[in-house]
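[audit] Reproducing an earlier prediction to check determinism. Same input, same settings, fresh worker. If the tokens differ from the archived copy the diff job will pick it up downstream; this log only records the rerun itself.
[audit] input (75 residues):
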Amino acid sequence: MRTQVEVHPDNRKVVDQLMTDGNFKTYEELFNTALTVLYWCLKEVNSGRIIASLDEQTGKYKELSMPAFEHRRAA
């Protein structure tokens, strides 16, 4: 499948930074990785779990909130 995506100019820097930070060689690699992470997150939310970042030193966590997650919880 071929997909064309229009990226808002404000997000272009974000895409470029993700390419650098993730050492992605192609936009396809970045896109496929993003899909994999989103798919996993939605499966976890469907299982009643939350998606969060944990500070291992303090034990505190910060939940990731996204409209897609809220939509799945409400379904």
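[audit] rerun output stored. Observation attached for the diff report: The chain has one domain: 9-74.
[audit] end
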